[in-house]
Amino acid sequence: MPSSSCKIVVLISGNGSNLQALIDRSEHYAYRVAGVVSNNPAAFGLQRAAKAGLPAAIIEHRDFPDRETFDGALIEAIGAFAPDLIVLAGFMRILGPDFVEQHAGRILNIHPSLLPKYTGMHTHRRVLEAGEREHGVSIHFVNEDLDGGPIVARSRIAVREEDTEQSLKERVHLLEHEMYPQVTDWYAAGRLRLRADGVYLDEKKLPATGMEIPAPPGVR
Ligand code: GRF
């Protein structure tokens, strides 16, 4: 794929700080944000998109009688941007299994835990409750399993004695904002691919836990 023409569409539901990081870094990287799709009309990320002059589509599930028609509208909205890669950034709806299967290897998600541990919600709280000494971020290709697709990259931080849900969330966000543009660039530059037997970066197969990206010094 010609690197500078890799179009991504970013799917959001809320704040959109990862969307912001993707927008901000895009001028140095091989992807460009073609558009944003939100299932939530009140998502702050939509304001970020507008400020960046990006087109956005709002597909609210309440406007549709059932799951199938909502999924259909979502797929249409994504398709209208003709993306090479779909980037989920705090998108709180599950994509339909057929769509996911058809786009295998072309959808990335970011999740605030060291997968395969702590799939699902409230990861910071659960990590604290479990007394974990480490926490972090994972980026993975999306498949039909919730937060269960092939892992591309992880980055870790130490859980400190004084950490709270909020302080963990803040450090995890800093990690995310570094990692997501970088990993998206790997894909855009043709360096990252999902193959039948696993995830490849620069023609080398990655371990099942993905590439380990060191946290920036101030974040650990
Ligand atoms: C991030 O923590 C991401 O890992 C998770 O949802 C959060 C989205 O944050 N999937 P933001 O909307 O990008 O600020």
Q: Total number of β-strand segments? A: 11
Could you state the order of secondary-structure elements as H and E?
EHEHEHEHEHEEHEEEE
Largest sheet: 8 strands, mixed
CATH topology type: Rossmann fold
* Widest sheet, order of strands: 3-2-1-4-5-6-7-11
Overall pLDDT score: 96
Domain unit count: 1
Instruction: Please state roughly what percent of the residues sit in beta strands, choosing from under 5%, 5-15%, 15-25%, 25-35%, 35-45% or over 45%.
Output: 25-35%
Structural class, by secondary structure, is: alpha/beta
| Morphology call | globular
DSSP helical segment count: 6
As an assembly, this protein is: single chain
- Per CATH, the superfamily is Formyl transferase, N-terminal domain
- Quickly name the level 1 CATH class: Alpha Beta
Query: Roughly how many Å is the radius of gyration?
Result: 17 Å
Uncertain runs are none
Work out the helicity level: 25-40%
Summarize the entry for a quick read.
The protein has 220 residues and is α/β, with parallel strands linked by helices.
Q: Can you tell me about this structure?
A:
By secondary structure, the protein is an alpha/beta fold. It has one domain: Rossmann fold. It has an 8-stranded mixed beta sheet with strand order 3-2-1-4-5-6-7-11, with helices on both faces. Strands 8-9-10 form a 3-stranded antiparallel beta sheet. Helix 1 packs parallel to helix 6. The N and C termini lie far apart (35 Å). The model has no long low-confidence stretch (mean pLDDT 96). The site of 5-O-phosphono-beta-D-ribofuranosylamine has 11 residues, from helix 1 and strand 5.
